[in-house]
Write a structure and sequence with these properties.
about 270 residues, four-stranded antiparallel β-sheet, AAA+_ATPase, binds adenosine-5'-triphosphate, Rossmann fold, 9 helices, 2 domains, seven-stranded mixed β-sheet
């Protein structure tokens, strides 16, 4: 395992997304609050980056900068070599609560992005079937969001985001509102989807085990101001392909790594 505290790895040829010197300060005078300072991070094609950190350390603010919702006070974001400063189709977002359009069927929700992009009807149909199949929701295509479970809704939200073909997918605690069993099945669904699409994923979680089960890299942030203190190459990357979460979790290596990460979060 390689653990290193450097702030930025060198730009490689398959870098999809680059955060350079990101800082965010809200307010001014006595209300001034520096929420993020000098965040540098490169994400390569197919990376699954999990971000861990105590509550309020700035994870969501960082995701909002990446999405183009929050302009940084300093620094910039590049996606595929271009400045990214406003929301667009290159960056897809999945929130903690699946914000599906309640009046549209699951299929129409998934079709929405490609339709906005002017994709032909035939292509749209193909995309909808492909992504609904990927998330195991073919049979729910005609149902409305309120007619399916929370886990199914979140899978539909993931399919909707992927159907717009983003270069990078941002996820803000997407399984945080789900019960433990559904969460576990969603983790294995997401791992499978990621293996199949090879998308670059930026994933915020409070759950150290979730980060170890899913990611290729783990970013640890500390607060006041929010900053990256550690970037870890996850030795368990792709681990769910070889063994179940239950058997991985009890290995001494996994337990040791989990304890190390918990300690580094709490050094904050
Ligand atoms: N628009 C804003 N104006 C002022 N302060 C803000 C604003 N948005 C966020 N903050 C502050 O920035 C800090 C970081 O918030 P953020 O939501 O990014 O943290 P987080 O790590 O995602 O927290 P959690 O894990 O609890 O979701 C908090 O102190 C929050 O109050």
């Amino acid at each position: 395992m390689e653990v290193y505290s450097q702030q930025s790895s060198s730009l490689e040829k398959n870098t999809i997304c680059q955060l350079q010197g990101i800082g965010v300060t809200f307010g001014s005078g006595s209300d001034r609050s520096e929420v993020l300072r000098d965040i540098n991070l490169d994400m390569n094609l197919g990376d699954f980056v999990c971000v861990l950190g105590s509550s309020g350390c700035g994870k969501t603010t960082l995701l909002r900068v990446l999405a183009g919702y929050q302009p940084p006070t300093t620094g910039y974001v590049n996606v595929s070599g271009k400045r990214h400063f406003k929301p667009d189709a290159d960056v897809g977002v999945v929130f903690q609560r699946p914000n599906l359009f309640p009046w549209l069927s699951i299929a129409k929700n998934v079709e929405f992005g490609p339709q906005m992009q002017g994709v032909s009807k035939l292509e749209r149909k193909k995309k909808v079937s492909y992504y609904l199949d990927m998330v195991g929701l073919i049979d729910a295509a005609k149902l409305l969001p309120h007619q399916i479970s929370g886990g199914m809704q979140q899978r539909a939200a993931i399919a909707r985001t992927l159907a717009a073909d983003p270069k990078i997918v941002l996820m803000d605690e997407p399984f945080g509102a789900l019960d433990a069993l559904t969460r576990e099945s969603m983790q294995s669904h997401l791992q499978d989807i990621w293996e199949r699409t090879q998308k670059t994923i930026f994933f915020i979680t409070h759950d150290v085990e979730e980060a170890l089960l899913l990611s290729t890299h783990i970013v640890v942030m500390h607060a006041r101001p929010g900053r990256i203190v550690k970037i870890v190459d996850n030795p368990f990357a792709h681990g769910l392909k070889k063994q179940s979460a239950a058997s991985l979790r009890v290995t001494p290596e996994f337990i040791h790594m989990r304890e190390q990460l918990v300690a580094s979060i709490h050094q904050d």
